Amino acid sequence: MILKLVVDEYIKTAEPIGSKILSEMLNVSSATVRNEMGILEDLGYIEKTHTSSGRMPSEKGYRYYIETIVKNLDEETEGFFEFEKLFLNKEQERDEIIKEAIDLLSQATNCTAISLGPNAFHSKVKKVQLVPISSHQAIILVITNFGHVESKQITIQDEIDTEELIKVIDLLNELLMDTPISKVSEKLHYEIQHSHIKELLKYRDTIVESFIEAFSKFAQSKYYLTGQSNMLYQPEFNDIKKLREFITTIENNEIFKLVEVDSEGISVKIGTENQVTTMQDCTVITSTYDTVDGDKGTISLVGPTRMDYRRVIPLMKFLAKHIQKLYEEE
Amino acid sequence: MILKLVVDEYIKTAEPIGSKILSEMLNVSSATVRNEMGILEDLGYIEKTHTSSGRMPSEKGYRYYIETIVKNLDEETEGFFEFEKLFLNKEQERDEIIKEAIDLLSQATNCTAISLGPNAFHSKVKKVQLVPISSHQAIILVITNFGHVESKQITIQDEIDTEELIKVIDLLNELLMDTPISKVSEKLHYEIQHSHIKELLKYRDTIVESFIEAFSKFAQSKYYLTGQSNMLYQPEFNDIKKLREFITTIENNEIFKLVEVDSEGISVKIGTENQVTTMQDCTVITSTYDTVDGDKGTISLVGPTRMDYRRVIPLMKFLAKHIQKLYEEE
DNA sequence: TTTAGCATTCAAAACGATTGAGTGCTAAAG
DNA sequence: CTTTAGCACTCAATCGTTTTGAATGCTAAA
After folding, report:
1. I want to staple B286 with a disulfide (CB 3.0 to 4.6 A). Which of A146, A298, B300, B303 is the partner?
2. Helix, coil or strand: residue A174
3. pLDDT for residue A197 is more than 80
4. Which nucleotide is nearest to A54 (CA to C1')?
5. For residue B277, how many other CB atoms are within 10 A of its CB?
6. What pTM does this model have?
7. d(Cα A120, Cα A148) in Å, to the nearest integer?
8. DSSP classification of residue B205
9. For residues A282 and A279, what is the distance between their CA atoms, to the nearest angstrom?
10. Nearest to A143 among B131, B244, B247 (CB)
C-alpha cells in the first residue's frame, strides 16, 4: 500500500515523497511510515536521492507497481471518449485515423508518441504501370492490393519506343500480378535469367533496376512521430544536457531503436531496461497490432519513467485493439 | 575596422569583446580602442550587456557588417568542394540532391536548414488514372509533366462498373490533359455544370471530389527540414526556456513563417526583423531559385544572429545557383 | 590624436550561515 | 509485537555578503 502511494504521489508531483504526507493519508504516525519505508528501501523498491530526502520509486518499484496494480486493471475505457470518437468516423482513411490517434495520445499523455506502420512487405502487387512524360523520361508506378502507391522517375538514354513500352508493361503486369512485395526482386531477377524476357526488353537494365528501387520504397516502414515538445516541459527535462541529448536522439531517428517490434501485445521498458543510453530515464511502452496480411504494426509512447501508467497502459491497449479492428474491417 | 573586428571576434567566441584584445590586434593602446568604441556605441552599431562589460554587435551592427563587408565579397567558392561534388552526380534525382545539399548545409553551419520546394502549382496534368483494387475501392492517380505523382484512395458504395469507369477516365484525361494544376478545380466544376458530363458520370460526386483532393496535395509545398539538434548546442541556447520554445516552434511548423518566399535572390532577416517572436534572437537567410515552370523554390538557414555570415552567405548563393541549374537542365 | 593612469562598475564566483523537510534510532505506550 | 513520541542528525536549497577581475569612462600628460 505504501509503495502504491509513493508511486502514485511521485507520478503526480515529481518530488520525493516524505513520511509526513503519507502518515496523513494513512492515519498512522510518520514514524510508522518511516519504519515501513525503511523495509521497502532495503528490498529495493524505493530509493532516496540523499540521506535526508524523501523516497521515490526505483525501477524495481515501478516494475512491481505495473505488474501487480496496473496490469490487473479491468480493461478500462472510461475517459477514452475522445479516442472512441476517432474510430467512429468511417469516412476517413485508415492512416489518417491512426495519425490522429497518435496526435491525441501524445497530447493526452505529454509524451512522445510514435506509430511504426506495418511495412507492407506482405502486400501484393495489384498493378504496375509506366507513364511516359517526355521523350526520354517516364514514371514507374506500383500499386498494391491495399491501395498504396509508390512511384519512381526514370530516364532512358534513347528515344522512347511507345510500342515496345506497352509490351514491357503488359509483360511485367502478367509476371508480377499478385506477387508479394517481398518476392518481387527475386522473381524479377529469376525471370530475366530464365525466360524470354531477356530478349524482349530493350531497356531491360534501367527499367528493372528502377522497378526494384520503387518496390524497395514499400519496405521502408512508414512512421509517424509527434509530441516531442510536450515532453520537454516535464520536470525531468530541466537538465539542459538531457534535453539536448533527447532531441538529438530523435533527430537521428535513434528513437526507433526503442520500439519493440517483435513483442506480442503490450511491452513496457522502464529506464535502463531499454538499450539507447541517452534515454535511460525514460519508459517506452509499445503495443502491437496485427494486420490482415500477416504484418505487425506498432504504436509506442516514450516518456519519463514517471508516467501515469494506470491511465496510459489501458489506453495503449485500447488503441491497438481499435487499430487492429480497422484492418480487419477492410 | 573596429566594428569588423568586433563582429568577427564575437562570431568566433560568443563572448563580449573588450578593448584589451582589440588593442593587441591593432597595435594601439586599449584607451584608443575604448574611445572609438564609445563612438560606435553612440552610433548604435555595438552594445554592452552591462556598464562594465565588453561590446557585442547590435542588429544594426550586423546589418552594416553584412551590407558592406559580406555582400561585396567576390563570389567565393573555395571551401565548397564538398558541395560541388553533390551537383556532379548526374544519376541522382533532383529532389535527392537538394535534400543532401540541405543536410550538408546544416552540418557545415551548425544551423537548421530548410528547403521549401516549388509548389508545383504551375505544373500541368500529364495523365489521370483510376485503378480499381477491389469491388468497392479504387486508386486515383495524377501525374504531372514533371513526373510528380499523387494518389488518393476512394471508396464507392455501389459495385464498380468497369466499363463505365474507363469512360470516365478517358473523359477526364481528355478534359484535363495539359491543364495547369492551379486551374484543375475550376475547370472540373465548370465542365460539370455546362457539358454533357453531368449525365455521363454515375459516380460523379465522389470521383470529382476525390480528384480535387488529390490535386490539392500538389499544392501543399514539399518541405525538408534538418539540423535542429546542431543548433541546440550553440551557447545562445543555454537558456532552457529558449530551447524549449525553439523546439516547440519547429514542431508546430511555425518555422516556415520565417521563410521569405516572395523575396528575390538572397534575403537576410536579423533578429527582430523577423516576425516570429520566439525566434527574435535568430537570423534567417533565405535564397530563392527559379524553376522552369515559373515557380520559385527556396532554401533557408535559421541560426543564431551570431552566425558566420562571411561563409554562409556566399554558400547560400552558391547552392541556390546550382539548384536552379538542376531545374534548367531538365 | 594617442596614451597612461586611476577611480568606478558590475556580473560572476566563492563563501558562509540559515532554513526546513526529511531521516534513523531509541525508549515509552498501547 | 506494533505503534508512536521525541530527539539528534543530515543535507539540498536559499539567501546575503564578500571577493575578484574584466571591463569601462574620464582626465591629464605625451
Report:
1. B300
2. helix
3. no
4. C22
5. 10
6. 0.83
7. 9
8. H
9. 5
10. B131
